[in-house]
Design a protein that fits this description.
Blueprint (H helix, E strand, L loop, with lengths): L16 E7 L3 H18 L4 E7 L5 H12 L3 E9 L5 H20 L3 E8 L2 H8 L6 H21 L2
Parallel strand pairs: 1-2, 1-3, 3-4
């Protein structure tokens, strides 16, 4: 786990729309990601609208992200899930499929998709990434969402 945490970006004082798609599986951990991301977005994008869609598990996240991108057309989507790495290849297969699908959707729909479908080896790792404020991946995703919006706007305006 990286010990480097991104600094908070400048406040975005625009009416932007963020969507969160979150797994119900391993809900206590995923709820931590949602909570930290929501709190950070309220701080750094106070005029933002935020919607939340729940799906059964991490494997179902891409289909919901695709629907949100196509029909709700948010400025960015944050995808949250937690997969515990077990003794079989199941976790790796799901993580790889979700990663590829989220990238494909982001590029096809031209919307930033912040991928925080995490794979943890144990509860200690999950707690550190999802429930603790020091290196919370929900906070990190919120900050990255603002940064990519700033970057894309700069690219689109030629600045």
């Amino acid at each position: 786990m990286s010990a480097e945490f991104p600094m908070r970006p400048d406040v975005l004082n625009e009416a932007v729309r963020f969507a969160i798609v979150a797994s119900e599986y391993n809900r206590s951990y995923v709820d931590g990601l949602v909570r930290f991301a929501s709190e950070e977005l309220k701080t750094i994008a106070p005029q933002a609208q935020l919607s939340l869609a729940r799906v059964p598990g991490s494997f179902e996240i891409p289909i919901a992200v695709q629907a949100v991108a196509k029909y709700q057309k948010p400025d960015a989507i944050l995808a949250f899930g937690l997969i515990f790495d077990g003794e079989t290849l199941h976790a790796s297969l799901i993580a790889s499929a979700v990663t590829q699908a989220l990238l494909t959707i982001s590029l096809k729909e031209s919307v930033p998709v912040l991928h925080e479908v995490l794979v943890a080896k144990n509860q200690e790792q999950a707690t550190a990434r999802c429930l603790s404020p020091e290196l919370n991946r929900g906070t990190e995703a919120a900050r990255a969402a603002i940064r990519i919006l700033h970057a894309l706007r700069q690219i689109l305006t030629g600045g």
